Amino acid sequence: MNFLVISTTLKNILVVLKDEKNNIYTRTLTENKSGNYLANAIKEVAEESKTNIKNIDEFGIDIGPGSFTGIRVAISTLQGLLIDNPEKEVYTFFSSDVLYRSAVNNNPNLKEKKLAVLKRARENAAYAAIYENGKRIFGPQMVFGEFLRDSLNNCILINEEAEYFKNKYKLENEVLYSNIDEKSLIEEVIKGKRVKIKNLEPLYLQKPLAVENLEKQKNKIGQ
Asked: Model pTM greater than 0.90?
């Protein structure tokens, strides 16, 4: 089975293709505006693996939490690939689960501990997900300073973005970085929810700033 996975909300954009022989081919995009090169990265892993894109059986896509624009680019790209098959079901997954799984796979002792994955949402807000005994027990949700100070007791913080909140709110939690590996990524993808490609949507945890600004303007006009 040929399996293509796209993630645009981790530190780097990832395109991973696992072929029928379980060989894995990866492209990592780190440049500014790297979403512009997503379609080309998919083409490159297909060519390297000698896989015709039409022969890819399964697809997985990261729906958040993270950059709304980045998720939209990924969804549009995948919908373009499957434009002739709108009923096709694809796997969806959360990038926070991938960060957790990578941390535990790299250090199995962490599975018995309480971990929290933090990703920056805005200056004063984080996307948070909490895990215990191998399971997600909270989130992903957008949370603010009070939650970070009061609800993460005894949690080890995962992800280098957690360092920002540790410093900002003077948290005493330990912070561990989680290097993503393809095994962890694929493990999480195949546990994800399947959605028809035509119904694919980002994970909505906050309104886009443009929408909030428009609502504020309307409220001012109505006053």
From this structure: no
